[in-house]
Write a sequence for this structure.
């Protein structure tokens, strides 16, 4: 059963669509207290909560604390999906909460179409592990996978994705933005994911232009899946070193409002993921600690760029410890 | 990979960039130590990644700290996106003109039109349709005005 805590009709339509796609009934309540009390006696497969203001989020926290507890398995972040109309840069209170799992913008466009897309994320999250592009698309979607044996192959991979998108009739500006997103994900997998036994980044200060041979655990894979409507591109590493807090700090930064300061303590720029999100991309971050990280970005193909930039967006996470 | 063509004019050093700006870029080598007026044309820049942004800001901030005056001309859509995303991307330089994206209503093709930013402000950010020279059809501005012209609106 899915639990929805919201009084907004669009949220209901969105979550009911997901329920229909997955064959799961939806229990819908308007108040946090009612939802938290329901959780005391019932099991929710996933919980969708509208928390479009910090005040409402604090009410939710209090209601859960007074009933099932903030660290209860009933409030497992992997099952939590926060629905919010706030900009990500105004959502620090959500991102920093121990409850935080996934962020879904309520700028749904069509809640039914968006619900159908998100149902793949939820379906994957119900498996033991969400890994693999096939879980995130219908069986009719075309998928391709490549493995990089050297960091020098990244640019040709990025160009390959761009050509694939142009062939699939994405507008060139969209194809450029998506291939830039791929550039960021693959670069992170190549240079940011490798860590030493103490968890320290091995290539923190290594120039991103350095040619490294990628073998054994350092091999980076990329997969592209396309169903004619959405494209999903994943970068996969075998380190499982993604840090949830650092990730949210990067994502929530908005350099249109604050100045970007060049840091020499890291060779990376720290702005790639936030840029991808702000240019229309959605994310799924799936990480099994010490084993594997898959970062997938999703973009919808639209008729014009205005719709592309204003498309339905989410940041979903699944962390396995 | 980025290509740079330099040319000294009466107004200063003109730098024409084309290609992608990413981790291989070395502005110190491509442009050299900048001083005086620097007029940067980016019409041909189709892509810039995060490490490219970092290299860009590092180079132009250093140039400004040494007294260079920056003017950005014919900014491509990729560069305009960065100007909007990163508040200090122009490092205090003046943006003179930008390419504005259009979509043709007849064949859905993409076009760009060059506008002086002063004219865009005068038009109240309402960009009139242009004619697609290939089809003769109407091409309309294709982006979100508050986002594409955000850097100009925030100055108003």
């Amino acid at each position: 059963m899915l639990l929805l805590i919201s009084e907004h009709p669009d949220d209901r339509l969105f979550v009911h669509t997901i329920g229909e796609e997955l064959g799961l009934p939806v229990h819908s309540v308007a108040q946090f207290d009612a939802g938290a009390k329901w959780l005391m006696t019932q099991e929710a497969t996933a919980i969708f909560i509208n928390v479009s203001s910090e005040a409402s989020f604090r009410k939710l926290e209090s209601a859960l604390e007074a009933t099932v507890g903030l660290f209860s398995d009933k409030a497992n972040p992997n099952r939590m999906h926060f629905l919010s109309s706030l900009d990500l840069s105004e959502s620090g209170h959500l991102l920093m909460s121990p409850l935080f799992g996934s962020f879904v913008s309520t700028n749904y466009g069509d809640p039914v179409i968006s619900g159908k897309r998100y149902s793949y994320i939820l379906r994957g999250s119900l498996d033991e592990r969400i890994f693999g592009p096939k879980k995130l698309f219908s069986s009719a979607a075309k998928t391709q996978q490549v493995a990089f044996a050297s960091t020098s192959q990244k640019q040709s991979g990025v160009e390959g994705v761009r050509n694939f998108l142009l062939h699939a009739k994405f507008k060139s500006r969209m194809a450029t933005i998506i291939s830039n997103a791929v550039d960021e994900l693959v670069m992170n997998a190549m240079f940011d994911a490798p860590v030493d036994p103490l968890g320290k980044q091995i290539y923190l200060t290594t120039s991103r232009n350095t040619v490294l041979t990628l073998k054994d655990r350092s091999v980076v894979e990329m997969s592209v899946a396309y169903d004619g409507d959405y494209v999903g591109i994943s970068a996969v590493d075998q380190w499982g070193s993604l840090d949830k807090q650092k990730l949210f700090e990067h994502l929530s930064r908005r350099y249109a409002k604050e100045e970007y300061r060049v840091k020499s303590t890291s060779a990376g720029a720290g702005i790639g993921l936030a840029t991808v999100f702000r240019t229309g991309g959605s994310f799924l971050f799936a990480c099994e600690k010490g084993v594997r990280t898959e970062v997938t970005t999703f973009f919808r193909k639209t008729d014009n760029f205005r719709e592309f930039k204003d498309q339905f967006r989410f940041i979903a996470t699944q962390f396995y410890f | 990979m980025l290509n740079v063509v330099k040319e000294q004019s009466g107004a200063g050093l003109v730098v024409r960039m084309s290609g992608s700006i990413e981790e291989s870029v070395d502005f110190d080598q491509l442009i050299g130590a900048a001083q005086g007026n620097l007029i940067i044309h980016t019409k041909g820049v189709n892509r810039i990644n995060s490490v490219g942004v970092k290299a860009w800001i590092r180079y132009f901030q250093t140039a400004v700290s040494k007294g260079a005056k920056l003017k950005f001309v014919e900014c491509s859509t990729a560069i305009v996106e960065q100007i909007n995303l990163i508040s200090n991307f122009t490092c205090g330089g003046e943006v003179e003109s930008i390419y504005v994206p259009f979509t043709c209503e007849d064949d859905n093709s993409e076009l760009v039109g060059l506008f002086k930013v002063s004219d865009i402000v005068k038009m109240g950010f309402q960009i009139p349709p242009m004619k697609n020279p290939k089809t003769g059809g109407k091409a309309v501005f294709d982006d979100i005005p508050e986002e594409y012209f955000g850097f100009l609106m925030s100055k108003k």
About this structure: The first strand of chain B starts at residue 2 and ends at 9. Residues 2-95 of chain B form a domain with the Transcription Regulator spoIIAA fold (CATH 3.30.750.24). The mean pLDDT of chain B is 94.
